[in-house]
Amino acid sequence: MTTPVYKSTKIELKFKKYYDKLIWETINARAHLKLWERLEKYKSSHLHELNQAPHFFNFTIKAHLDDALLTLSRILREQRDALTISEFLNFAEQNKGIFTTQAFEQHQRHKPNFIEYWTENHKPVTPENIEEDRQKLKSLEHTIDNLITWRDKVLAHTDRAFLLKGRIISKEYPLRRQQLQEVIESLVEILNRYSLAYDSSTFLEKFIGEDDVRHVMDYIRSHIEDRKKQLEALRKQALDKR
After folding, report:
1. Helices (H), the chain
2. By CB neighbour count within 10 A (0-12 exposed, 13-18 middle, 19+ buried), where does 205 fall?
3. Which residue has the higher pLDDT, 232 or 91?
4. How many CA atoms lie within 13 A of 7 on its CB side?
5. How far apart are the C-alpha atoms of 52 and 29, rounded to whole Å?
6. How large is the greatest C-alpha to C-alpha distance in the chain, in angstroms?
7. 3-state SS class at 3
8. Which has the minimum average pLDDT: 44-53, 72-81, 109-118, 144-153?
């Protein structure tokens, strides 16, 4: 017997688009932050490798940090007609019906590998959950406010008064890596709560390309060693001809 295909409602399709966009933005922000962090650490342990292309790596390090901050600010900065985490929570509050156990069963029962255990252990989204997520964001307000200030003063715009007064954004509105990581972890946790309640799907935080920097460093190191061997061989040949 053929399993009937479940057709998502307009509200459900909107949820999927909202969730997919926000979770990928969050994961991309984490990836840029991790790549920036690793490149910064390589400055002390692999400076010789970085100095093979210093301008490239300096611009790359800055680009990763800027992209992480701008991406997070897009998710967090409330703005009319913008898709933000706050708007996502408002949407979830207005459409709690798609996160009930009954709706979950409908989403799952049409799948070929459906098992009753999923429905029996389903946790629907409650108004208390939504308020808890709002309070979680509120607890990160200081970091989020600093992040938005970075966006408004130096990243998306150059604030003329800020510039002319010689103010230093990193001193007045510090952003520590641990603080940004906490924001990212909270966003992933919040977003996955609703996806888990909707159809039992979630995203992992880790980005598959996080080790790319190490591979690049290994390649550069190998290239340097090969070049040293070639130069040593040429030097030896020159000495032998004397």
Report:
1. 10-45, 47-50, 54-76, 85-94, 101-109, 116-120, 127-139, 141-150, 160-164, 169-172, 177-199, 212-241
2. middle
3. 91
4. 1
5. 27
6. 89
7. coil
8. 109-118
Task: Provide the angle, in degrees to the nearest 10, between the axes of the packed helices 10-45 and 177-199.
Answer: 150
pLDDT (average), residues 139-153: 96
The single-letter DSSP state of residue 97 is G
DSSP sequence for 135-196:
HHHHHTHHHHHHHHHHIIIIISS--HHHHHTT--HHHHS---HHHHHHHHHHHHHHHHHHHH
What residues does each domain of the chain span? 10-205, 211-242
Please state the pTM of the whole predicted model: 0.87
Q: What is the pLDDT of residue 1?
A: 46
**pLDDT for position 112:** 65
Q: Nearest CA to 88 among 165, 177, 156, 190?
A: 190
Read off the pLDDT of each residue in 18-32 and give the average, rounded to a whole number: 95
Q: Residue 148's CB: how many other CB atoms inside 10 A?
A: 19
Confidence band of 6 (pLDDT split at 50, 70, 90): low
Q: Which amino acid is at 124?
A: P
Query: What's the rounded Cα separation, in Å, for the pair 137 and 84?
Result: 12
CB 188 within 8 A of CB 205: yes
Mean pLDDT lowest among 57-71, 141-155, 201-215: 201-215
